[in-house]
């Protein structure tokens, strides 16, 4: 886990929605991998996509419950990159038939941003 990868750099102000299916964390109880599709919607200075990808890959050995991992990503992006508005949603693959799709946002949320993909 490497939050130091996230460094605010000068750039244009944008509103972007970024998605990846490559998020993986570890269950804090069993150590089993938890895979997720993650969506990051933000307004503010443009995030360096390569740095964001490296940061997300650094979570591959992080042990945390799904909700904690989304909160961690939200907090790291918001505090380290000084993002004006941010939403982080993750759709984790089911384990034991339980569907967990945590969302953390400071946008007005109506629930439509959580869309289950074929992976779930």
Automatic annotation (TrEMBL):
Q: What domain of life is recorded for the organism?
A: Bacteria
Entry-linked Pfam families: QueF
Q: State a single Gene Ontology molecular function.
A: preQ1 synthase activity
InterPro entries named among the record's database cross-references: GTP-CH-I_C/QueF (IPR043133), NADPH_dep_7-cyano-7-deazaG_red (IPR050084), QueF (IPR029500)
GO terms classed as biological process: tRNA queuosine(34) biosynthetic process
Q: PANTHER family per the record?
A: NADPH-DEPENDENT 7-CYANO-7-DEAZAGUANINE REDUCTASE
The name this protein carries in UniProt is NADPH-dependent 7-cyano-7-deazaguanine reductase
Q: Which organism is it from?
A: Candidatus Avisuccinivibrio stercorigallinarum
